[in-house]
Write a structure and sequence with these properties.
The complex is a heterodimer. Chain A is α+β, with helices and mostly antiparallel strands. Chain A is built from 20 helices and 29 strands. Chain B is an alpha+beta fold. In chain B, the strands form five sheets. Chain B has a five-stranded mixed sheet with strand order 1-7-8-10-9, covered by helices on one side. Chain B is globular, with a radius of gyration of 23 Å. The C terminus of chain B is likely disordered. Classes of the chains: A alpha+beta, B alpha+beta. At the A-B interface, helix 1, helix 3, strand 27, strand 28 and helix 18 of A face helix 1, helix 2, helix 3, helix 4 and helix 5 of B.
Chain lengths: 779, 503
């Protein structure tokens, strides 16, 4: 099949762009409310840890507008919404585990009245305080984890470190990160006949919401339907943690037999749900005089929060990304998911990958500074060997060979495009004469594994309907959160059927259409659902071709679909619609399901070995910053990026993913700081103080650098048979702004004449930068 | 005084509303009552801009630009009470273009073509900020720089795009044939709503909002209602109701008094009416002292600067408000009015404790007066986690006057973020006055400074860091103002740094 007009590999606007800009793209809260709708608000635990003695339900019920007050006792089924391990109550029962944990839900006639009543939680929730562990290192010291420790080992790291010519040991830490999806959590539940329940929910995982709501209500899954047309951003925050809202809305709808909406205020969203795990690292490395790593041992402690949620898979991915783009011959990685009395941390774009990879970047940056070498040279020296290497330098610590390593040519290209060496010299000259301001430069690479580590999650389904007028409707198991998944899937289907993009429409994700779907996560949305939709569309095309072949007496292989027309051998060409009409009359099935399961994956959880990733995505970034040595203020002056999107399905959307991830990751490493009230014995201990955008600062337009040169890798391809040989772009670029962090580190180092390695931790707030500046200038 | 419904221009006609609480926000009214859901709620506190709308008003002599006879400014619908719209026009994303009958407006077209939306939730807010920028520039046949566009979007958060495509759209929207707003019918409607009579809104569901139109009426109402809560821009009070769920039964709204919005130079002072918007006030200050531009642009986001007032910022007396440190450095006086009595007080003497001041019951702030004839060198520095729309960890307004003998004749150092109130660093000032402005003097000033403030540790930074930064800012100030080889802003501030050429 040959298309004159391309459907894939072209930049198309987001399928909803025209709706976004006019305010007519409905999000869950924008859907028309049914008559009789009631509104919910959550009463939250006022303490970080305590025995729950009771809730003065009557006092709340007596407040204006209150129709009902729900507690754990009102849950007919399982009081649990944990995605992996069942340690996550929907409403607290017996014990409260963190300040902000939902204890009761108020149902009222209006949202405002519900909020007013729920705000009385501090007065009506009776708790006997228990000692609280508020930091991961405290929990680690106490041996408190949500999961058993994990170990990933290759060779003998201890021996390699001890026999190495040079050794380095140290600690490092990175902060957590709030997803800050602009649309907060929301669920709208509508009771249906015969114990049925429809839940409109802003979620990345409708199937899990369906199953969790069913368990909560004590009904079979076939009675619960979950639908999501679009989210106002997800970033991982709506993968598992939309469940508490879906369940409580459904519970209220079930109890009151009325439609029930739960939309939490932003502050409650921060207080109730978890976010990216902060990590603490302790490492020891042996290396040679050139900077080659010979052995490395790393202990990572993450803040899991009060329950497991996705902390295990997050730690797994962190451990599988410590290597980033580097060959680590002998390595031992230990992962501890510390149980703290804070929100249960969860998925966030990168899912532990960034936290794992930044550890090796910090190590290599330090090695370079100790050796007085350009950090790029040390990084490059440690790159994985070529894919055809026979010395084992192309095999990851978890035993997966790297089949298409392009990091060296990609980095070389970026070095040239960004004029890295000339700027390095210019910056040195600038720093030599600038008394207050110092500039810094860094280039960092990315290698990121694509697929869910858990093999069974790598499956997807789709439904494609062709109507008799030739228009096409697609439904698949993925969810649209802004990443352009629906646009890419529509492009794939349009390509497969040879019709215009406009002829294809993608509808809301709906558990009643495609069953048992995986979360739209791990960057796999297009890979999985694109393939499933292609499979469905292809079946229809083959049926149409067979029908046309028989009807017009040509070979099926001579029936071609392109540009909305069908060429039937040499016999005739006709509009797609025309053939569809004839096929309908000929009683051909014009709709199909499609299915896809990523082939060749394996993973042994115990040994942490296998082939967890279908392929790897690569990229690299250069950043230049200027730092004020008096205040620690800094500014990103320029960023250059080359990123590998394989054969991009939609370059504009992929560039958008890369740029957005870059700025988001930069925020994580710089301005976005989470602060909990310390364990000082006060009633505020454990309160997340940065619980709104007034105190939690994500990047703004002025943080976008004046030079922002983002390109797709020109030779992009995929050795694995992905959808049109594209590569996922959701998560990998989140690691690109490591270059910003290490450019800041470089500028700080310059302030001390490059004599002292800056003790900079992330987020590199002005305060953290000034602290590191003090360290390099005072010694 | 007239008791009547709220009247404002919306979707091409004057609408009347009489059944919402006085503290009903414009956003809740739009989404829940009018079921216009294009405008989104992201944070409910004026920090994310998803709810950005544009408010049209008849000009008020505050020096703000007028588009076709209309003052058009962005506002956060989540922290504007509906009665505050009385006599004004409300424009939302649904007014801009698109839908069944109309094509996309150039702003919207450019956002689509530049891939400026991903999830689309923040998009209506961005469209409104860009639309306001567009209208102002089209009206005078100009285009904003990319930097100006970024500054215009300081109150809008996007978590998806990284902003590059939105800034591209801001540039590209001017490439299409101009599509200026037809302000004629709006101006006519607002003229028809104009009144000199005090507006009183007291709905059956409770609460009372009184909005006088003249200074005299306002002063009289204040005297008669000393317990009513004075409401100006609602950028702080809005959070009291949205977040703290407080009841505000009696509101006295100052925003309908045009005379209070004037910003004018006369008798050697710049007089900033207490009702003048932060944007108007800072614009006038930065015109006289260009070194204040950075703090102006970093003061909240544009919609908050449009709605909030400098008078409100000063009278509210937050220790982390950015107006007071700068105004103290400028030696500003406050004009206070109680009934017909008017008195003056130096701003530096105004605060008595955390959120407490010398206003008497029944008294109100009428104006801020800034002496224009000054030989002092003035700088203002703000330190916060983020450049745009962040609350200061430290804000410093610093002024120094050096005599012909090279000695410091006068110094005024206003500091915010370091104590329960914004205050002058008198001991530090004393350490420099009469001495040559050299490094030795700086060091003794820094030493004096350390004994003068005992800041708190909070989410914005530790006490030790705040003190250190403030002392280092004194050094930056010295480097910029020392008689011997002063450094330029580009040598001491990352924000002034020259943009590197694209290689």
């Amino acid at each position: 099949m040959k298309n004159r007009q391309q459907r894939v590999g072209v930049s198309r606007p987001h399928e909803s762009a025209h709706l976004h800009v006019t305010g007519s793209a409905p999000f869950t809260d924008d859907l028309p409310e049914l008559a009789g709708t009631v509104h919910l608000a959550l009463g939250l635990s006022p303490v970080a840890h305590g025995r729950l003695l009771g809730v003065d339900v009557e006092a709340v019920r007596a407040l204006p507008g209150v129709l009902a007050v729900l507690t754990a006792a009102d849950i007919p089924g399982a009081n649990d919404c944990g995605p992996v391990i069942h340690d996550d109550p929907i409403l607290a029962d017996g014990v409260v585990h963190y300040l902000g944990q939902p204890v009761f839900a108020v149902v009222a006639t209006t949202r405002e009245l519900a909020r007013r009543a729920a705000a009385r939680a501090r007065e009506v929730v009776r708790v006997e305080p228990l000692p609280a562990l508020l930091t991961p290192l405290e929990a680690h010291a106490a041996g408190r984890y949500v999961l058993p420790p994990m170990h990933l080992v290759r060779g003998d790291a201890r021996a390699a470190i001890e026999t190495a010519p040079r050794r380095l040991s140290g600690t490092f830490e990175v902060g957590g990160q709030e997803q800050f999806y602009l649309e907060g959590h929301i669920a709208y539940a509508v009771p249906r006949e015969d114990d049925g329940m429809l839940v409109q929910c802003s979620t990345q995982h409708p199937s899990e919401m369906q199953h969790t709501v069913a368990h909560c209500l004590g009904v079979a899954s076939h009675r619960v339907q979950v639908e999501c047309r679009r989210m106002g951003g997800g970033f991982g925050g709506k993968e598992s943690q939309s469940a508490v809202f879906a369940c409580i809305a459904a519970l209220a709808a079930r109890k009151l037999r009325r439609p029930a909406k739960l939309r939490v205020d932003r502050d409650d969203d921060f207080l109730v749900t978890g976010r990216r795990h902060c990590f603490h690292y302790e490492y020891e490395v042996g290396y040679d005089d050139d900077g080659r790593v010979l052995g490395a041992e790393l202990t990572m402690v993450s803040r899991a929060g009060y329950s497991a949620d996705l902390s295990g898979p997050v730690m797994t991915r962190a451990m599988c990304h410590f290597d980033n783009a580097y060959w680590l011959p002998d390595v031992a990685i230990h992962g501890y998911s510390a149980r703290t009395n804070t929100q249960s941390n969860t998925a966030f774009r990168g899912f532990g990958g960034p936290q794992g990879a930044i550890a090796i970047e910090n190590i290599l940056d330090t090695i370079a500074r100790r050796l007085g070498r350009d950090a790029l040279d040390v990084r490059r020296l440690n790159f994985y060997g070529p894919s055809d290497a026979t010395d084992g330098r192309n095999v990851t610590p978890y035993g997966q060979p790297i089949p298409d390593n392009i990091i060296e040519p990609l980095t070389r290209e970026l070095e040239a495009v960004s004029d890295y060496r000339r700027r390095r010299e210019e910056i040195a000259a600038y720093n030599a004469t600038s008394p207050v301001l110092k500039r810094g430069l860094a280039l960092t690479p990315v290698k990121f594994g694509i697929s869910f580590n858990l093999v069974h999650l790598n499956q997807a389904g789709a439904l494609v309907h062709v109507y008799t007028d030739g228009s096409v409707l697609v439904n698949h198991g993925g969810t649209e959160m802004g990443q352009g998944l629906n646009t890419k899937v529509a492009q794939v289907v349009a390509h497969e059927l040879g019709v215009d993009f406009e002829a294809v429409r993608v509808t809301a994700t709906d558990t009643a259409k495609v069953a048992n779907t995986s979360a739209t996560a791990a960057s796999t949305g297009s890979d999985l659902n694109g393939k499933a939709a292609e499979d469905a569309a292809r079946q229809i095309r083959l049926r149409l071709a067979a029908f046309a072949a028989e009807r017009y007496g040509v070979a099926a292989s001579d029936v071609r679909f392109a540009d909305g027309r069908v060429t039937v051998g040499a016999v005739k060409t006709m509009a797609f619609r025309e053939l569809v009409g004839e096929a309908y009359m000929g009683r051909v099935q014009l709709w199909s399901d499609g299915f896809y399961a990523t082939p060749g994956l394996s993973w042994d959880r115990e040994t942490m070995q296998g082939r967890p990733f279908f392929y790897f995505a690569y990229g690299a970034a250069v950043s230049e910053v200027v730092v004020d040595t008096l205040t620690g203020e800094w500014r990103l002056l320029a960023a250059h990026v080359i990123h590998d999107a394989g054969r991009s399905l939609n370059p504009a959307i992929d560039i958008g993913q890369i740029e957005g991830a870059f700025i988001q990751g930069m925020g994580w490493l710089t301005t976005e700081e989470l602060v909990w009230h310390p364990n000082d014995g006060s009633s505020r201990a454990g309160l997340l103080l940065t619980h709104a955008p007034s105190t939690y600062k994500i990047p703004t337009a002025n943080d976008c650098p004046p030079v922002f040169d983002v390109r797709l890798w020109k030779d992009g391809d995929n050795v694995s048979d992905t959808i049109h040989r594209s590569k996922a772009t959701g998560e990998p670029p989140l690691l690109l702004p490591f270059a910003v962090f290490y450019a800041i580190r470089d500028a700080i180092s310059a302030a001390g004449g490059h004599r002292v390695d800056p003790p900079l931790t992330a987020p590199a707030t002005s305060e953290a930068i000034l602290r590191a500046l003090e360290a390099v200038t005072s010694s | 005084m007239s008791n009547r419904p709220i009247r404002f221009y919306f979707r091409g006609a004057v609408v009347e509303v009489d059944d919402v609480a006085t503290t009903r926000t414009v956003l809740d009214w739009l989404r829940e009552d009018a079921r216009c859901t294009g405008t989104k709620e992201g944070c409910n506190e004026g920090d994310c801009g998803a709810c950005t709308v544009v408010v049209g008003e008849l000009p008020a002599g505050d020096g703000r630009e007028v588009v076709g006879g209309l003052k058009l400014t962005t506002a956060n619908a989540c922290i504007q009470y509906l009665p505050m719209l009385d006599g004004k026009a409300l424009f939302t994303v649904e007014d801009v273009g698109g839908g069944v009958e109309r094509p996309l407006h150039p702003v919207q077209r450019a956002m689509v073509d530049c891939h400026g939306s991903q999830c689309g939730f923040c998009t209506p807010g961005f469209v409104m900020s860009l639309w306001a920028t567009y209208q102002h520039h089209v009206a005078r046949g100009a285009r904003p720089s990319r930097q100006a566009l970024a500054d215009a979007l300081s109150g809008n958060l996007c978590r998806c795009t990284g902003y590059r495509p939105i800034l591209d759209a801001g540039e590209r929207m001017f490439d299409a044939p101009a599509a200026a707003l037809d302000t004629g019918p709006v101006v006519a409607a607002l003229e028809g709503l104009r009144s000199e009579e005090t507006f009183r809104y007291a709905p059956a569901c409770g609460g009372e909002l009184v909005a006088p139109r003249t200074l005299e009426a306002l002063a009289a109402e204040r005297l008669a209602r000393p317990d009513a809560r004075l409401l100006a821009g609602c950028t702080d009070i809005g959070l009291w109701t949205n977040k703290q769920l407080r009841d505000l039964p009696a509101l006295l709204y100052v925003g309908a008094v045009d005379a209070l919005k004037r910003v004018e130079a006369r008798d050697g002072v710049l007089s900033i009416g207490a009702g003048a918007s932060l944007e108007a006030a800072w614009r006038a200050l930065a015109a006289r002292w260009p070194a204040l531009t950075e703090v102006w642009l970093r003061f909240a986001g544009v919609p908050v600067r449009n709605a909030g007032t400098m008078g409100g910022n000063v009278a509210n007396g937050s220790p982390i408000g950015d107006s007071a440190p700068v105004l103290m450095a400028l030696d500003a006086d406050l004009v206070l009015r109680r009934g017909d009595r008017v008195r003056r007080l130096p701003l530096a003497d105004f605060y008595t404790g955390y959120m407490q001041n010398r206003l008497e019951p029944g008294e109100l702030l009428q104006a801020i007066e800034v002496p224009l004839e000054s030989a002092a060198q003035v700088r203002a520095y703000k330190i916060s986690k983020r450049f745009d729309c962040d609350i200061s960890a430290v804000c410093a307004g610093l002024a120094i006057e050096i005599g012909d003998d090279g000695r410091v004749r006068a110094a005024r150092f206003g500091l915010g973020g370091l104590a329960a109130v914004v205050k002058r660093a008198y001991a530090t000032e004393a350490a420099v006055v009469g001495r040559p402005w050299d490094e030795a003097t700086l060091l003794s000033a820094q030493q004096a400074f350390a004994g003068e403030f005992a800041p708190l540790t909070d989410v914005r930074g530790s006490a030790a860091w705040r003190l250190q930064v403030a002392r280092n800012l004194l050094r930056r100030f010295w480097l910029e103002t020392r008689p011997d080889a002063p450094l330029g802003a580009a040598d001491v501030s990352v924000w002034a740094a020259r943009e590197p050429e694209a290689p």
